[in-house]
Amino acid sequence: MKMKEIRELSEKEREEKLADLEEEYFNLKFQLATGKIENPGRMKHMRRDIARLKTLNREMKQSADQAGQPKAETPSS
Where are the domains of the chain? Predict the structure, then answer.
């Protein structure tokens, strides 16, 4: 999943996608431990997608926090 695709999702969709990916990643780790994983390379892509979603969520939260707070005034001498 590319960042462009992630940015087009709504906040709720991003949260749902993140939860789904984390659950699927957990299942893949379990399959890896039991030796029944078919495609171990998929784990790498899932980790990166999870990181992309978390990064965008953090960026959105920071921009919302900055928009809600007034800018600090610089002392005039």
Answer: 3-57
Residues of the chain with pLDDT under 70: 70-77
Cα–Cα distance, 72 to 27 (Å, whole number):
47
- Whether 22 and 47 have beta carbons less than 8 Å apart is answered as no
CA distance 52 to 48: 6
The CATH code of the domain at 3-57 is 1.10.287.310
Q: CA neighbours within 13 Å on the CB side: how many for 50?
A: 14
Cβ pair 21, 49 in contact under 8 A: yes
Model confidence, pTM: 0.79
